[in-house]
Write a structure and sequence with these properties.
This protein has about 130 residues and is an alpha+beta fold. It has one domain: Bifunctional nuclease domain (Roll).
């Protein structure tokens, strides 16, 4: 996985918005913060993977992580690559048999899979620039 030029980040907080129909995740990049809004289901699953909540049953993200592991695949990381018209874009890097492939994904899905696979999360600098304008 080529991460040159990407900024490592950490998930600081997962919560719900005032209306309870959407969730949000606050990520830290160096000394800056970025908030990404997502469905409440994605936020609840992310909170569960972060140890902030419990789910009564395994989620589809748990299933994806288990299948990848059983098939010898490895999630190498998530890159949040762009922000256009208020929509975040991401790519998930997965390797298998020594070859890596990037898959287009919603950052909320990518974060849910990456955190379950103990994979790093990165942000492209243009995302920070776009979020701060």
């Amino acid at each position: 996985m080529d991460t040159e030029g990407l900024l490592p980040c950490t998930i600081e907080e997962v919560g719900s918005c005032d209306c309870d129909c959407h969730g949000e995740v606050r990520i830290k990049i160096k000394d800056e913060y970025l908030t990404i809004y997502m469905s409440s289901d994605a936020a609840i699953n992310l909170a569960a993977a972060s140890g902030q909540a419990e789910l009564p049953r395994p989620s589809s993200y748990d299933l994806i992580a288990a299948i990848l592991q059983q098939c010898g695949g490895k999630v190498e990381g998530l890159a949040i690559t762009d922000l256009k018209d208020g929509i975040f874009y991401g790519s998930l890097s997965v390797s298998h048999d020594g070859e890596s492939q990037w898959y287009d994904c919603r950052p909320s899905d990518g974060m849910n899979i990456a955190i379950r696979c103990q994979a790093p999360i990165f942000v492209h600098p243009r995302v920070l620039m776009a979020a701060n304008t």
